[in-house]
Specification:
Strands 5-6-7-11-12-13-14-15 form an 8-stranded mixed barrel, surrounded by 6 helices. The protein has 14 helices and 16 strands. Helix 4 (133-142) packs across helix 13 (406-414). It is an alpha/beta fold and 462 residues long. The protein binds 2-phosphoglycolic acid and zinc ion. 2-phosphoglycolic acid binds next to loops.
Length: 462
């Protein structure tokens, strides 16, 4: 009889994501009976430094978006090489996958092929060990040490004590939830990509989710009664109204919080994913909603500063573009004491870019997206590094998602503290929210909930 946790077979297939775009699904088989399955997500507003998503480019299938080459990478190259490895040793498996690809951005065999195996392997290992995925991921997380090259003497962000209990125990995350979508996710109706809420005052994940649903409903009613066209939803389930300015979205959100009987800034704060890389050109930020305006980096920071004084804003993602390091430094110096400043396109979940950001005084938080870097082990290293330099990690979905709810379990197991999934509409989003409800119920007092308390070190928040 074969060893229960040894990989016996790896299978891949092409399936569809939430935009009807092909993506890679992988099954890893272990021992006599265990099978783990994973589906890889896909972004639309991708950063240029992300790991490479391999697509066929064959115009006769899915407008060139097919992933049969990546499926072939799994079936013909990577999969057979995994047979015989121990699924429990995730680090060795991921190392082998990286070696087999051998290119800096996983472009030879495809980050989508590699990540599919990496995640399906973790699932299979949990099944073979007869433990829940959250227990297996917690074990992997506890074994994740920070490699010497990613230790930085500097420490930009918050102290260990102020970040506690992040990373130290199982935690249900604070959801950061898209309510109004713009940018590349909603036909560029607004310049900014996400207008989000953070239910910082809720006492539990379940309560937070209840508040979110109620605000989402009140917002839909407010937009409809104001006669806004486009209450239909964008890629992540947020409303995609034709508002006349970006700022109008902030006022509608504040109003919806009040109409849900909650206090803006105390119970529920606001967040933005500016995704500014996507309207940045030749050193200028080009904003089109509400009349064309152009800013340099200082002007962009002024705008965010102004909004943060007039609205209950607590978190801003990609306020500057992915290669505007000086802009990022200015943004961090001006607003880093008052706001969570998340690097998404800036860091692309890559520990090397995060290290550079820490050294240059950029951001105080990092978005964690598995497919930006392309393996589970590297993702855990970036998370470990974020916490070691005092940056808040935010585990995130992509705009192209699936029924796979791995990230919900990852957020709980690593105690990351925050998760960004999209809105409370569309089942690829709800798959994750519902998985968190199951984990909350199942783990009971074994999992904590820090909620908005993680922001106690920001000025103006206690
Ligand atoms: P993406 O968007 O998945 O299209 O990159 C998500 C984000 O920018 O946070
Ligand atoms: Zn983003």
């Amino acid at each position: 009889m074969s060893h229960p946790t040894k990989i016996t077979h790896v299978h891949a297939r092409e399936v569809l994501d939430s935009r009807g775009k092909p993506t890679v699904e992988v099954e890893v088989h272990c021992g006599p009976h265990a099978v783990g399955r994973a589906i890889v997500p896909s972004g639309a507003s991708t950063g240029q430094f992300e790991a490479h998503e391999l697509r066929d480019g064959d115009p006769t299938r899915f407008d060139g978006q097919g992933v049969l080459k990546a499926v072939q990478s799994v079936s013909a190259v990577l999969g057979p090489e995994c047979v015989g490895l121990d699924a429990v040793d995730q680090v060795a498996l991921d190392r082998r996958l990286l070696e087999l690809d051998g290119s800096p951005h996983k472009s030879r065999l495809g980050a989508n092929a590699i990540l599919g195996i990496s995640l399906a392997n973790a699932q299979a290992a949990a099944v073979a060990r007869r433990v829940d995925l959250v227990v297996h991921l917690l074990d992997l997380w506890q074994q994740t040490a920070l490699p010497a090259e990613f230790r930085t003497p500097g420490r930009m962000g918050m102290s260990d004590a102020s970040l506690a209990p992040l990373g130290q125990e199982l935690l249900l995350p604070l959801p950061m939830v898209n309510m109004i979508s713009g940018g590349l996710h909603a036909g560029r109706n607004l310049d900014l990509q996400d207008f989000l809420i953070l239910p910082v005052g809720a006492g539990s994940y379940r309560e937070a989710l209840g508040w979110i649903v109620s605000i989402y409903r009140r917002l839909g009613e407010a937009l409809t009664s104001a006669g806004c066209e486009g209450v239909l939803v964008g890629d992540e389930g947020g409303y995609g109204p034709r508002l006349t300015s970006n700022e109008m979205a902030l006022s509608f959100l504040t109003l919806a919080i009040e109409q849900a009987g909650l206090r803006p800034g105390i119970d529920v704060a606001l967040g933005l994913d500016v995704a500014s890389t996507h309207f940045f050109d030749a050193g200028r930020y080009l904003l089109r909603s509400g009349g064309d305006v152009e800013f340099d980096s200082a002007g962009m920071v002024d705008l965010l500063d102004d909004w943060s004084r007039r609205y209950p804003l607590i978190s801003v993602e990609d306020g500057c573009a992915e290669d505007d390091w000086d802009g990022w430094n200015l943004l961090t110096n001006r607003l880093g004491g008052r706001l969570q400043l998340i690097g998404d396109d800036l860091f692309v979940t890559n520990p090397e870019r995060l290290k550079r950001g820490v050294e240059r005084g950029c951001a105080n938080s990092v978005l964690i997206k598995l497919n930006q870097i392309g393996s589970l082990t590297e993702t855990l290293v970036t998370l470990r590094m974020a916490l070691s330099v005092g940056y808040w990690p935010v585990v995130s979905a992509r705009s192209g998602e699936t029924e796979d709810s791995f990230i919900a379990v990852l957020a709980v197991a690593t105690g990351a503290g925050q998760i960004k999934i999209g809105s409370v509409a569309r089942s690829e989003r709800l798959a994750k929210y519902n998985q968190l409800l199951r984990l909350e119920e199942k783990l009971g007092s074994r999992a904590g909930y820090a909620g908005g308390k993680i922001f106690r070190t920001l000025r103006g928040h206690s």
